[in-house]
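Morning F.,

Quick status update on the modeling queue. The single chain you submitted on Monday has been processed. Sequence for confirmation:
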Amino acid sequence: MITGSNLILLQEIAEFLDQFFAVERYSQEERGGVYLPSTRPVRRLGLVLEPCAQLQEWTSTQDIDALFLHRPWKLEPGQLSPDIGVISYHLPFDERLTFSFNSRLAQVLGMSSLEVLGNKDGRVIGMIGEIPTQRFAHLCHCVKQIFGGYE
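Structure tokens below.
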């Protein structure tokens, strides 16, 4: 049972992520945030890469109150219950938590001496650095563990 002190709303999650992703670095179109508003309290947040045909069924069977939808552009009207809120951060998510200048990823990979690979629109993209000497198979295994596979 949700009590007043345990309530968290979609807008509060978005405010936290706005700070975490430092969205002020991006143009207004790229910032992300609340994609579909909702006043429903969020107990379970679903994480989805992009919409799929079974999205409404999945949110219902998993008792999802709101979604973090990485790529929301193909979300169709009626694909979700009207009280399910959606937040979306595409570019900020990619640049902060994937292969951009990602100090967390560097730490997991054991990288040191990090340097900026390049810049785009005044933002740092990519990184290079040194990793400990290791077998290539071990490094591949590490990448697979972090990202769930290879692309």
